[in-house]
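Record 1 of the preview.
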Amino acid sequence: MLSGVVARPEEQPNTPSGDFPAAAQLPFQSNVIKHHRALLTAVRRDPKRHGLDGTYATTTASVLGLDAGSSWSMLTGFQEWLVVRLGKGHDLTWPILVRHLTPGGWTYPLSAQTDVVAVTTLYQLIGEFFTAREQPDGLAQIFRNYQSWATTQDWYHRPNRWFPISRFSSAWWTGVRRFSL
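->
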């Protein structure tokens, strides 16, 4: 293969299923994840150098900032991956899910010792998540696993009591349009 030329999917090992553009993005996505790993490793090794005190609160804020700086793509699928791992918590944010996955479970407030354990768990989980994302079809597999998990939940099959289908009938919608004109 020539330098700078992307091989066809059938020529590349471990390519995602699908078309050529998806396979062509693999090196880019892998490099982006490597960049995120390097940033997080630098912050983990020396939080003070990055303006952090090393607590779970500031570490979480820093990770959220890095995610925001990547247009929210760095942690795409992280919450879903954590929910499948925990087996519950689809309605919780990832910082709360990480706390539930911390050895010893949820504790509030965090003591100095449990704070250190929570930070360590956060970095460990993000590393494992990045490893899962780097796999061929990794992100798609994360969402497939989440969908499989969700379909086993009681709430998934219940009608939504807040937005019953009848509210969206044509008669209701006509009334809304009539009053909004």
